[in-house]
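We modelled the chain as a single entity of 106 amino acids. Its sequence is:
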Amino acid sequence: MKLTQRSGPPAEAATHSDATIVPGRLRWRCRRGMKELDVLLERLAQRVLSEASAAECRVFGELLELPDPVLAGYLLGGETPAEPHLAQGIARMRALCRLDGGSAVF
């Protein structure tokens, strides 16, 4: 039996539309090195990704590309991204947190 090791996702997966691959991939990318971000992002993903538009998923994915300290500053420290589309995404995430009584549960 010959086993081969893959170094990344199959080429076919990269060509699918956002609607078919983004939610699962984004959920996986919510696993970070900072526990606070793990909890916030995974709960947010569970709550809203299934209903998010492709554009919202792209913004969420762009936020997930940020380093932990920067993303934590936006979500936990009250900082705001300079880019308007990212600022809007952060504002929506904060609003979801406030809807749950100000807890860190999205």
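As a brief sanity check on the tokenised model: The chain has one domain: 22-99. The chain has six helices and no strands.
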